[in-house]
Structure formats: C-alpha cells, structure tokens
Amino acid sequence: MASMRKRAEELVVDLQDSIVKALEAVDPDAPPFKRDSWTRAQGGYGTSCVFAVPPSDDDAAPPPSSVLEKAGVNVSVVHGTLPPSAVQQMRANHAALPQVEGGLPFFATGVSLVIHPRNPNAPTCHANYRYFEVTEAIDPDSPEPPKPLVWWFGGGADLTPSYLFEEDAVHFHKVHQDAAAPHGTQMYPALKKWCDEYFYIPHRQESRGIGGIFFDDLSVEPHPRLSSDEKRPQTAEEIFSFVRDMGAAFIPAYIPILSKRCVLPSTPRQRRWQLIRRGRYVEFNIMIDRGTKFGLNAPGARIESILMSLPETARWEYMSDMGQDPESEEGKLLAVLKTPKEWV
C-alpha cells in the first residue's frame, strides 16, 4: 500500500479536479478557472485553480454576469525543514516529537478553497482538507525514506451567507452529518461545535458564518475533543477514510445551494450588505485564521495562493445602520451569528 503522504496527495489532487469541474458546470458560459502550476524553491509544488473576471477600465461597460465573482481551489504539496521553534510549538499537541537543537523535516499537502458568488443570496463557502507529517532527520546514506515521527489530518467546510435561508443551512449541515455518521455518532456534533468556536470574530462578538465542521490534529493519538469511549476513527485507515468522506461531501453539500440561489433577483441594498459581510470575512482571515498566519510566516510563502481566500471587493461602513433592525433580513442573519444554532 502507498504511504499515507502519497495517498493524501492523491486525495487532494482528485478533490481539486472534481470540485473545479462541478463549479464550472454551474456556469458553463463563464470563463473556465485559470490553472496555475508552481514550484517551491524550498521543496514541493502546487496548482492554483482561480476564477476571477478581469475588471473593466470602461465605467460604461455592463457589469459581469457570471455566477462566481471570485473563487479559488488550491492544492499544495510541500516539504522542507521546520525550525526548532515550530517543532517546540507542535509538541504541545504531539508529545512524540523529540526535543531537538536543529529543525526536523516535514511534509504537508492539502486542498483549500473559497467561493465568493456574485449574487448576494448565494453564500460564500470555504473548505480545506490537509495532511501534515514530521519525520526523523533525513539520512543521506540510507535508501529508506525517513520514518514519520507524528502525522495528522485537519480540515472542514463552513458556509458564510449574507442572507439566511434556513433550508440551506439545514441541507449543508445534514449532508456533513450523514457523511460523518458511519465514522461515529459523536463525530458531527463534536466537529460542528469545534467549527462554531473556531470561526468566531471576538472583536465583533459574532461568528463568521453559520458553521459546518472543523477538525485538526486528527491522528492515532488520543484527542481531547473526541472521546475514546465512543466509536470514532482511530486507526490510520479509519482516519483516512473519514477525511476522504468529508471531502466527498463538499459537492453535494454546496453545489445545490449555489445553483438555486445564484438565479434569484437581488437589489443594490442586498449588494451593499454582501460587501459589508465580506469585510467581516477579511477581518477573520487576516487577523484570526491560523492557516493564513502559518502560510504568511512560512519560508518561501506563495502570497498569491495564501490571499486567494479574500473577496475581490468588500466594504467597511462606519457605524452602519444595516442589520440593526432585528426584524430585517440582515438582522435575522446577525441574530444567528451572535448565537450559533443547531441546524440538524
């Protein structure tokens, strides 16, 4: 059987291909995603698949009519050496990592995507699935690859609407609940709670969106968020199967929502609110998201790929009146963002 790093690499590459094809099928008249392959000087490669309609310099030009305003589905497969400070930080969750004076080799692969539709009624969506391992020091005289000291999977998917359609929230959560069910009854509730806690903007005292699932450091080691008293993925094969099923859930969870909402009529007021909510999205990604911070601080960081998650346009209004009326559609969304809801 292939190594876990090879299987993880094949998984994320296949996910990228299937998700990009599904998004292109929603709007076959729009330009295809731009596919951009790159190599990393420190070791590794990646493929960025990005959708963006080039802006026009003509103010009189009609606005674009594509379903998507900006979207990206990126894959990276990288390796290199973790500095001692990073190894020390990781030891908090992975006791098997040794105390070292120098760095340790690492391998990481993942698929990360963000979809910003043009229609304010269609929700933004984010997902990523990733694999990380730290290995013994490489012996240049040995024909064998270095042995992994620790490895883990992380990832999830979450929905960020500007306008709340409760049936969409139920559908998104139900698809992920059903996908997680064969792997243990506690998996969806634990990962849903984790998602609500992670995608929270403290300085706004609100969630970024209406949640989904989120997990990190999932391996054969005991996990404080997942009780060993109940059935859950515990072997390497069970964990890989779980991550594979979570990744496969993305298309049936999101594409039907996008297809249904992208054709609804919208108003300039709804567009204004959409841009305000995208401002919140930017605040979370730049100020709070651990993945963004890790990427920006990593040696040889590819900034274009890291900041792909940001919307093409956003808005920050000083003391905005939008959302202040609890009976308005904007106010109803804010109520859910202030108090996360159990959807299924």
Task: Report what the structure shows.
With 344 residues, this protein is of the alpha+beta class. The chain has one domain (4-52, 66-338): 3-Layer(aba) Sandwich (oxygen-dependent coproporphyrinogen oxidase), CATH 3.40.1500. The chain has helices at 4-26, 84-90, 166-180, 187-198, 236-248, 250-261, 268-287, 290-297, 303-306, 329-338, and strands at 34-39, 44-52, 68-82, 104-117, 124-135, 148-160, 200-201, 206-207, 211-218. The strands form two sheets. It has a seven-stranded antiparallel sheet with strand order 1-2-3-4-5-6-9. β7 and β8 form a beta hairpin. α1 (4-26) packs parallel to α5 (236-248), α1 packs parallel to α6 (250-261) and α3 (166-180) runs antiparallel to α6 (250-261). The protein starts with a helix and ends in a 6-residue tail after the last helix.
Condensed summary:
With 344 residues, the protein is α+β, with helices and mostly antiparallel strands.
Q: Assembly state here?
A: single chain
The sequence of SSEs as H and E is HEEEHEEEHHEEEHHHHHH
**Helicity level, as a percent range?**
25-40%
Task: Say how many strands there are.
Answer: 9
**What is the name of the CATH topology?**
oxygen-dependent coproporphyrinogen oxidase
Low-confidence stretches: none
Rounded to an integer in angstroms, the radius of gyration calculated over CA atoms is 21 Å
Could you say which structural class the secondary elements and strand pairing correspond to? alpha+beta
